[in-house]
């Protein structure tokens, strides 16, 4: 299989990344481009879909040139995209609106109203209490009726991009299985649109794209896309998957009984299981369809939790920033070194990490908060409390997940994402969870998952699980300190009460600030 390459495209919330791999999972080239959203005012975030498309074009072209890869040696292309938003397409498959993800909070009142009236019905059918796709459609219908009227289909960002790469017509655009949970309009267990939900919210089925499997080949590179990218016309395009699903493939969640921790922009835990159960009791698990039919990935996340580190450094770590400039060390390593000297619990400082609202369970009023600090606490106490609070939150949601899926047994956690480079945070999480943390030996997990899926779709790989195990090897293992684990159990109970007791405060603040805006 020499000189056979696969291209994986990862559309994240901040960057577009493209990677090329050979047939044994070795990266032979990578390129990225900044595709941050425009955020002209608080709560508004819009992506230029055509800008993302041209970022994909440019990155593919750069890789082919810099890695000296012949277009005829590319076996397939696969793409993942941000899972929680939508873009409208007109009759010509051109965007009728900017791409809108959950960072764009203007739809939140509609989401709250939907969940207040139909939460159990939606969660039972879709497996999720996060009907973002539906809420954004109703928001557009109510506040931007001209956009809604000229839109023919509402699709994911990956659906738009592949439509353009393949030159698909409006009736051929699609959504793959791994996005269904976020729509609020599907029967996810059966992989179909749900007539009852569509009727209940008066959403015509004509607005919805066809549903395909992640491994389906949905077309080939068009002549126009070939001119922009340098790829060969007809190069197979695989339907692809949502970004978190790509990470799950790359981290080995392709068989039941595995747990992964993605320490990224949206910190999450995901568990693979062969059972579909809607979490009606705790409302903390969103059940994502796996790329493998009959396998499910209950997942729980924090909105923008990974952004909190960057926000904290920009606003509170000026001294450490100066130290980093002088020493040349990474500022997060400097903060880790200081925070590591503190005992478990940050000497009584607790933090609520839901600066963008709480997702699992949903409460858009939630924001951030510190409690327990005195004049003696310093930057490192506040920093460590951020690391610990995210771990506390994940532990609470993990325990709810295990109760919902009692037959799934977990022995260790696989960690990936930018935050997994922090030895301190990995150890804190291992101590909090009481489980070993195994960090993967590479940071291109989503793009790798794309390439593995692409190779599987065109027959280069016979088995997804064995391919992942062949390509991804553990790099470091963190065993839990059970003494610290027992200490953290007491902090977790206080943290749990802190969340409950803060609900009324955040609701009142939301109401007050809403009045001030009006």
Ordered list of secondary-structure elements with their pairings:
Blueprint (H helix, E strand, L loop, with lengths): L4 E7 L3 E8 L4 E8 L14 H18 L7 E8 L5 E3 L18 H19 L5 H12 L1 H6 L2 E3 L1 H10 L7 E3 L9 E2 L4 E2 L1 H6 L9 E3 L4 E4 L2 H7 L6 E7 H8 L8 E4 L5 E4 L14 E4 L6 E6 L5 H10 L1 H10 L3 H9 L10 E4 L14 E4 L7 H26 L8 E4 L6 H11 L3 E4 L4 H13 L6 H8 L2 E5 L3 H36 L1
Parallel strand pairs: 1-4, 4-12, 7-10, 13-19, 19-20
Antiparallel strand pairs: 1-2, 2-3, 5-6, 8-9, 11-12, 13-14, 14-16, 15-16, 17-18, 20-21
Helix pairs in contact: 2-3, 8-14, 9-10, 11-12, 12-13, 12-16, 13-16
Instruction: Indicate the structural class.
Output: alpha/beta
Overall helicity:
40-55%
Please, how many helices? 16
Low-confidence stretches: none
Distance between the termini: 63 Å
Mean pLDDT: 94
Count of β-strands = 21
Q: Strand order within the widest sheet?
A: 15-16-14-13-19-20-21
User: From the alpha-carbon coordinates, what is the Rg to the nearest angstrom?
Assistant: 22 Å
Largest sheet: 7 strands, mixed
User: How much beta, percentage-wise?
Assistant: 15-25%
Protein described:
The protein has 518 residues and is α/β, with parallel strands linked by helices. 40% of the residues lie in helices and 19% in strands. The chain is built from 16 helices and 21 strands. It has helices at 49-66, 108-126, 132-143, 145-150, 157-166, 195-200, 223-229, 243-250, 307-316, 318-327, 331-339, 379-404, 423-433, 445-457, 464-471, 482-517; strands spanning 5-11, 15-22, 27-34, 74-81, 87-89, 153-155, 174-176, 186-187, 192-193, 210-212, 217-220, 236-242, 259-262, 268-271, 286-289, 296-301, 350-353, 368-371, 413-416, 437-440, 474-478. The strands form six sheets. The protein has a seven-stranded mixed sheet with strand order 15-16-14-13-19-20-21, sandwiched between helices. Helix 13 (423-433) packs across helix 16 (482-517). It starts with a strand and ends with a helix. The mean pLDDT is 94.
């Amino acid at each position: 299989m020499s000189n056979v390459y696969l291209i994986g495209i990862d559309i994240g919330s901040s960057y577009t990344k493209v990677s090329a791999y050979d047939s044994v999972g070795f990266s032979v080239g990578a390129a990225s481009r900044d595709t941050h959203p425009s955020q002209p005012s608080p709560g508004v975030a819009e992506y230029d879909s055509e800008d993302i498309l041209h970022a994909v074009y440019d990155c593919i072209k750069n890789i082919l040139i810099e890695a000296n890869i012949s277009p005829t040696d590319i076996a397939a292309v696969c793409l993942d995209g941000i899972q929680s938003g939508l873009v409208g397409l007109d009759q010509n498959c051109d965007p009728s609106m900017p791409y809108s993800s959950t960072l764009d909070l203007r739809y939140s009142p509609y989401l709250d109203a939907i969940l207040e009236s139909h939460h159990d019905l939606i969660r039972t059918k879709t497996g999720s209490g996060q009907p973002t796709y539906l809420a954004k459609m109703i928001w557009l219908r109510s506040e931007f009726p001209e956009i809604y009227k000229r839109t023919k289909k509402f699709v994911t960002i990956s659906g738009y991009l592949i439509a353009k790469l393949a030159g698909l017509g409006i009736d051929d655009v699609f959504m793959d299985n791994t996005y269904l949970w976020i729509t609020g309009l599907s029967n996810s267990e059966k992989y179909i649109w749900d007539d009852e939900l569509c009727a209940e919210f008066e959403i015509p089925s004509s607005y919805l794209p066809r549903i395909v499997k992640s491994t389906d080949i949905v077309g080939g590179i068009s002549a126009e896309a070939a001119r922009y990218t340098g790829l060969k016309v007809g190069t197979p395009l695989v339907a692809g998957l949502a970004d978190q699903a790509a990470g799950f493939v790359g981290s080995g969640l392709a068989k039941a009984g595995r747990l992964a921790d993605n320490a990224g922009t949206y910190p999450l835990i995901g568990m693979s299981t062969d059972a579909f159960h809607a979490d009606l009791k705790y409302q903390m698990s969103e059940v994502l369809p796996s790329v493998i039919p009959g396998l499910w990935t209950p997942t729980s996340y924090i909105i923008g939790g990974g952004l909190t580190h960057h926000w904290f450094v920009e606003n509170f770590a000026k001294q450490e920033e100066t130290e980093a400039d002088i020493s040349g060390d990474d500022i997060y390593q400097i903060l880790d070194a200081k925070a590591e000297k503190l005992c478990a619990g940050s000497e009584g400082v607790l933090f609520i990490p839901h600066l963008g609202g709480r997702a699992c369970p949903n409460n858009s009023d939630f924001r951030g908060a510190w409690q327990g600090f005195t004049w003696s606490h310093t930057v490192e106490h506040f920093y460590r409390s951020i690391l610990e609070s995210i771990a506390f939150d994940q532990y609470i949601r993990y325990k709810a997940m295990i109760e919902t899926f009692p037959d799934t047994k977990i022995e260790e956690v696989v960690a990936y994402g930018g935050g997994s480079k922090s030895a301190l945070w990995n150890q804190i999480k291992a101590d909090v969870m009481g489980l070993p943390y195994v960090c993967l030996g590479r940071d291109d997990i989503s793009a790798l998952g794309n390439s593995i899926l692409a190779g599987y779709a065109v027959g280069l790989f016979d088995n997804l699980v064995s391919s992942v195990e062949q390509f991804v090897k553990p790099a470091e293992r963190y065993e839990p300190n059970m003494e610290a684990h027992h200490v953290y159990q007491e902090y977790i109970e206080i943290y749990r009460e802190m969340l409950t007791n803060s609900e009324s405060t955040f609701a009142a603040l939301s109401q007050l600030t809403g009045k001030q805006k009006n």
